[in-house]
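Structure tokens please, single chain.
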Amino acid sequence: MGSRPPLLHRIGEAGARVGTRPPRSKRLRLAIQLGVALLIFGFLVLTVVSQWSEIQDKGAHFHVVWLIPAFLALPLFYVFGALGWDLILRGLGHRVGVGQAQVAWGQPILARYVPGSVLYVLGRVLLSERLGVPRRTTVASIVYEQAISATSAIVFSAYFLIIHPDLEGKPLRFTVLLLIPLAVTLLHPKVFAPLANRLLGAFGREPLPAVISARGVIGLLAFYLLNWGVITIGTYCVARSVSNVPADEMLRVGSAQALGYVAALATLVAPAGLGIRDAVFAWAVKGAVPGGSFAIGSLIAIAVRGVLTVVEVIFAAAVTMLGRRQGWSIHTGVLHPSPEEEAAGEPSGG
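Here you go.
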């Protein structure tokens, strides 16, 4: 009787086979979709109700016209996000095309609202595999994407975190500056490659076929910083629709969004950072609103979450249509029927 492979190797083999059969049950998909919707809007409603009296006292207002530029700017954030991932894949030696990258990045984006973001990662892996990208390369690209996004977010928001009124007089606030060189160092190919290959080897996987050069990493950081500027414009317009946020506080509003993103990364179990990202954003943005009101900050956070969710739905629908027009797409088993259902002629449950 031969010896069994190490535990991590068996886990790696199981992970390599994941995704060949998405969930087939329409009821399961419908339950996931309804659960996600209730989670999102239930959180928003409960937050509004609990803060409503203070919000009224602070004189909140609603100017819907400000949502027009918000809905023009925010979709660009997702378009550039997909483009950034395409650039990461190119740095790893794979060209999938701009249009196909938009589909592979954007179609499973709503799966982020499923706790753990497992379905989101799985959707990216399966779509990329259809484009000829090995699974380990796709996973590496997602690791790069999250690390570069987090590093750029820290760079973008560091100044405004240091000057936040709640942190005044606390020397520990300057430790955020130490995270920037540390993150950049970890992304350097001479550091990232041995760390990633050692981790892959522990799971019985092959080493990475390529890593992104140091110059490429710096270029990507600059690109993602630019994209934080894009979402800053959109987020400010949403904030302006519910409160008189001064124009000179626009960067602070954007930095609050970046801080919320970093906080969400630290809690992968929360679907799309729901709750945690919003709470951190509300805390950070309150320094930009008149009176420093956390209640108004909460209202802005709710409005931003709602608008971003609508934009994500529109973006996911648009790239799905693009994929089908190009003659390729993938059925995640959550928003679309599984391959087995299509073969049987069963209609979609999404």
